[in-house]
Amino acid sequence: MIVKNATDLIGNTPMLEIDPSIHGLKNINLYAKLELLNPFGSVKDKTAWNMLKHDLAEIKASGQTVIEASSGNTAKAMQMICAMHEIPFRIVTNRVRVREVKEILQLLGTEIDELPGQSQCLDPTDPNDPLFVVEKIMSQEPGKYFHTSQYTNKRNLEAHIEMTGREIAADLDVVHYFVGGLGTTGSTRGTGEFLKSAGSPYLKSIGIVCTKGGLIPGIRNSDEMHEVGLFEKEFYDEIIEVSVDEAIDSMLTLVKSCGVLSGPTGGSSMAGALKYLRSIDATLTEKKNAVFLVCDRAEWYLSYMQKYRPQLFGLKKKASALAEIDEAQCESAPSLDTDRAQQWLESDNNVLVLDLRGSLAFKGSHIEGALNIPQETFEELCENSIPIAEGRKILFVCPVGDQSRKFSAYFSRLGFDCASLQGGFVAWRDQGKPTKKGRRRAKCKVAL
Predict the structure, then answer these.
(1) Is the pLDDT at 444 greater than 50, yes or no?
(2) 77-130 pLDDT, tens digit each
(3) What is the CATH number of domain 44-147?
(4) Which of 63, 70, 130, 392 has the most crowded CB, counting CB atoms within 10 A?
(5) Which residues contact 259 (CB under 8 A, 6 or more apart)?
(6) Given its phi and psi angles, is residue 90 left (phi above 0), alpha (psi -120 to 50 degrees) or beta?
């Protein structure tokens, strides 16, 4: 087969029927839709192409730069397409958390605006939002940018109505269960909508998210779905939470047993599919069909795998006492409501307020005298040492009070006099407790 353009290779991805000896289902045929075989390596090739192809000529003629808030795969595909048409491309993101993803974007020449590290804890007060920053950039230079807006763009959905859904329907007369990870939600919604209209009216659409506080690249965790403009909870018959370990286990099954070089997102979809289907399978008396998406490739995620499964690379796994804190320990961790916390701060000058929110949220407003170390950064510090002086009292503050409990449990176990702020900074602010805005960074003048 000879094609004139790489974009001609987008779509028409095959499906692999998974051997029952691998998945263990007796009455359900399980198929993997191999979106990793798109030319730029992921299901987002379809999204990127459909959002750009209608406007490329006009964008180039007007000298615009394409701008997008992307965590990786969409950015990769859009950069490739823009480069082929000699169009500048810029991304704004706070979610490039896998080294290879950032490196491939740099290799491709992407202009990256990487915002300060964001806490994994849900933060309704944080202005450190890529979409907000994109709008600000565009308002400063009107007409310079073309914003594809993958989180709200209906062409994201349409890409999977016209391609992914149509392709699956061409291969299977009827689909009873469709499973995919929830990022922008374009692929799962678009595919599901088409399948329901094309011979599968009783389709069950199952969305997959990562468990709270976890990181599976390409999908959101259970706290983050509010950020997604296209997300409609009622569209999904069920939303299944999958842990990092479950995603990696199924990813390795796809790689080693099925010969599919899937990334962790594909692993999460397979894990979630089996979690949902196993109980149903036992009740069936006739064969059903289930399809899950394998979104992208393993090669982008080697550093991620080294972090979570170092033994696969001959490395020793770091012992992390913080990671061993379970929900029961969090529930019993020392905590204070806002009134008692305020009394503690006013009566004892030795209390350190450690604010775990993102840096821009802290800059916007915080408890006076607080030290800001975003949660992800503080976790890394705790893995290597105890970053707080012995004898110091600590009030841990996160946005809504759930993640700070883990640190309170951990440091109290180490002998610190500490507590988590119940309800987090949101409760402190909403109850009218005193706050302070962050200082502007002074400009430095250098004499030569």
Answers:
(1) no
(2) 999 999 999 999 999 987 567 889 889 999 989 999 887 655 444 444 555 677
(3) 3.40.50.1100
(4) 70
(5) none
(6) beta
327-430 matches 6-39+154-313 in CATH topology: no
Q: Is the pLDDT of residue 339 over 60?
A: yes
Q: Is 370 left (phi over 0), alpha (psi -120 to 50) or beta?
A: beta
**Residue whose entry in the numeric block shows the structure tokens 């510090």:** 381
Distance CA 50, CA 53 (A): 6
Query: Any residues with CB less than 8 A from the CB of 347 and at least 6 apart, and which?
Result: none
Residues counted in the chain: 448
Within 13 A of 77's CA, how many CA atoms are on the CB side? 29
Q: Which residues lie below 8 Å from residue 442, measured CB to CB, with a gap of 6+?
A: none
In angstroms, the first-to-last Cα distance of the chain is: 62
Domain boundaries along the sequence of the chain = 6-39+154-313, 44-147, 327-430
109 Cβ contact list (under 8 Å, min separation 6): 79, 83
What is the CATH architecture of 6-39+154-313? Answer: 3-Layer(aba) Sandwich (3.40)
Q: Supply the CATH classification number for the domain 327-430.
A: 3.40.250.10
Q: Taking the model in full, what pTM does it have? A: 0.82
- Among residues 340, 333, 335, 334, the alpha carbon closest in space to that of 433 is found at 340
Map tokens 């399809």 to a residue: 291
346: amino acid identity, one letter: E
